[in-house]
Design goal:
The protein has one helix at 24-29, and strands at residues 2-8, 14-21, 35-38, 41-51, 56-63. The protein is mostly beta strands.
Length: 73
């Protein structure tokens, strides 16, 4: 399955960070992980969406320590 990672910016826009194939073990790890490192930058995973039309799992991320980004309420 392909995973597409999007960063939610402070102004609410989405920026595509990465698109890559993930195997079943990495997808299972999403059940216990709250944070990911990509290119040396740490992100918090705030939402996931399974796009069955495109066979893509989309993850919405915010930069750790950022004031902007997703709604955490």
């Amino acid at each position: 399955m392909t995973i597409t990672l999007f960063e939610k910016l402070a102004d609410g826009q989405l920026q595509k960070i990465s698109e890559r194939p993930w195997d079943e073990k990495l997808i299972q790890a999403l059940n216990v992980a709250n944070f990911v490192l990509i290119g040396g930058k740490e992100y918090e995973m705030i939402e996931g969406r399974l796009n069955l039309d495109l066979n893509i799992f989309e993850l919405l991320l915010v930069t750790v320590g950022s004031e902007g980004g997703g709604n955490r309420q």
